[in-house]
């Protein structure tokens, strides 16, 4: 099955691009310390705003648009060049705005300058095209080599806090190089186009429509780190960022379905197969529930042992942050299944946009008092509240379109199995030693118990997985 193959490709890719910095995290925590990690987190959060405004929603729009017309080579050629050139212009404008911002800076100038290469790198990001034509293998294998080189470079050239600039440069340049390496593979799908035939700005408005929810999404994904850096300290921003990295790695497995399913559902919707799009939503929602619930409870259970082992005792402040933020694993998995995999490909952009705007508003309002009172822990609580608002709104937006009973079929089985796993792993966490072998044993036993309970409860998802492996 093409969708399953693409899911596995994309899951591998998403996990790998997050695991590369994750592998380096224990090392960097030791050589850069909380301050170095915090400076990188804070300055990068600022740069992300310039990247956001320069990208103007192209990743989502380009992915969907390519999926609509991928069977027409001529139209596909024109669409690619038009979207690519449009974003090239907007990225140039965004970098110009960064230059103005740079002249008003009073601290961290060298770090901002190194981070700014990431803005330029986004001008050459064409991964949206390959996702639209459902060719995920190219994106994976081209970037695999780049990421491995990045990993090696970090261990060779980053030895102390004084190498923080070098570390940021390695990350920024690897992003630029990785994006450029995708271009040779374009010739398989597109031909040449005359500049006079291109209508670059016809894509601006529809792209901007999808840009609005991306602004809101970025606000409640990055705003926490920015506000912590401004209101508390760069160290607090670093503590939250470390927790966020771990959660993102786990989320990559669940949300990988979104990138795969968007073009697939969009193509089915374009052909008028409305019942198929609903069926895909039911199956995807059940799947992400089945895998995200044990991930959420598992991370809660092992946080107190995992953090000191992974980050060192200097980062024990990350423990409560991670335990709270783990709740967003199930919430983002659900909102990804509903929003990215159903609302966007079926052109219900308004509902999707309103949901993420609501999440951004809740995040901003909750952040101020919660950060003042609880610091980075408060930012984690605000994150959970914002994701909860997004998910609830999107569920309401589905009324009249889906049967909620079908959507949440077998949810209680996943939840019950997850709770049992949580108590077992929590008990083992206190009973066993504080070492890696004990931690790995806890994780393996937790997974085993979760699967056994699903088998005993006869969860339908197991039958689906069995069919996939037999096909």
Automatic annotation (TrEMBL):
Keyword Transmembrane helix belongs to the record: yes
Membrane topology field: Multi-pass membrane protein
Compartments where found: Cell membrane
Assigned GO CC terms: plasma membrane
Keywords: Cell membrane, Membrane, Transmembrane, Transmembrane helix
Entry's transmembrane regions: 7-29, 41-62, 83-104, 110-133, 140-158, 164-183, 204-223, 249-269, 281-303, 315-339, 351-372, 378-399, 411-430, 436-457
Source organism, top-level taxon: Bacteria
Matches recorded under PANTHER family: O-ANTIGEN TRANSPORTER-RELATED (PTHR30250:SF11), PST FAMILY PREDICTED COLANIC ACID TRANSPORTER (PTHR30250)
Descriptive protein name: Flippase
Highest classification ranks of the organism: Bacteria, Bacillati, Bacillota, Bacilli, Lactobacillales
């Amino acid at each position: 099955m093409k969708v399953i193959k693409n899911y596995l490709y994309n899951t591998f890719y998403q996990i790998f691009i997050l695991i590369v910095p994750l592998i380096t995290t224990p090392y960097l925590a030791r050589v850069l310390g909380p301050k170095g990690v915090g400076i990188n987190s804070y300055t990068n959060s600022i740069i992300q705003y310039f990247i956001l405004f320069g990208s103007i929603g192209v990743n989502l729009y380009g992915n969907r648009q390519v999926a609509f017309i991928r069977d027409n080579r001529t139209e596909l050629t024109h669409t690619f060049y038009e979207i690519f050139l449009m974003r090239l212009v907007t990225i140039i404008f965004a970098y110009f705005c960064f230059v103005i911002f740079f002249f008003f800076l009073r601290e961290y100038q060298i770090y901002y300058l190194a981070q700014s290469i990431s803005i330029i790198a986004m001008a050459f990001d064409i991964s949206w095209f390959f996702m639209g034509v459902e060719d995920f293998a190219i994106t994976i294998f081209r970037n695999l080599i780049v990421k491995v080189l990045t990993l090696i470079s970090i261990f060779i050239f980053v030895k102390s806090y004084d190498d923080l600039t070098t570390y940021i440069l390695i990350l920024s340049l690897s992003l630029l190089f990785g994006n450029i390496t995708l271009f040779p593979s374009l010739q398989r799908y597109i031909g040449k186009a005359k500049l006079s035939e291109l209508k670059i700005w016809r894509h601006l408005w529809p792209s901007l429509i999808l840009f609005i929810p991306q602004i809101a999404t970025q606000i409640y994904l990055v705003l926490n780190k920015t506000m912590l850096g401004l209101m508390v300290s760069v160290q607090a921003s670093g503590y939250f960022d470390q927790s966020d990295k771990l959660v993102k790695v786990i989320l990559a497995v669940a949300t990988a379905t979104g990138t795969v399913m968007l073009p697939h559902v969009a193509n089915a919707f374009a052909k008028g197969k409305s019942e198929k799009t609903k069926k895909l939503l039911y199956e995807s929602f059940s799947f992400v529930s089945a895998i995200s619930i044990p991930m959420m409870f598992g991370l809660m259970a092992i946080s107190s042992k995992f953090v000191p082992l992974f980050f060192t005792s200097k980062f024990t402040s990350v423990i409560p942050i991670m335990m709270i933020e783990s709740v967003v694993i199930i919430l983002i998995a659900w909102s990804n299944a509903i929003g990215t995999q159903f609302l966007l490909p079926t052109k219900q952009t308004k509902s999707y946009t309103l949901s993420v705007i609501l999440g951004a508003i809740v995040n901003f309002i909750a952040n101020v008092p919660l950060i003042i009172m609880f610091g980075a822990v408060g930012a984690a609580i605000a994150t959970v509240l914002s994701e909860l608002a997004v998910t609830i709104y999107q569920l309401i937006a589905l009324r009249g379109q889906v049967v909620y009973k079908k959507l949440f079929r077998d949810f209680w089985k996943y939840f019950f199995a997850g709770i049992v796993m949580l108590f077992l792993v929590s008990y083992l966490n206190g009973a066993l030693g504080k070492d890696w072998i004990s931690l790995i044993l806890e994780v393996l036993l937790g997974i085993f118990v979760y699967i056994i309970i699903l088998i005993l409860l006869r969860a339908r998802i197991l039958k689906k997985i069995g069919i996939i492996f037999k096909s």
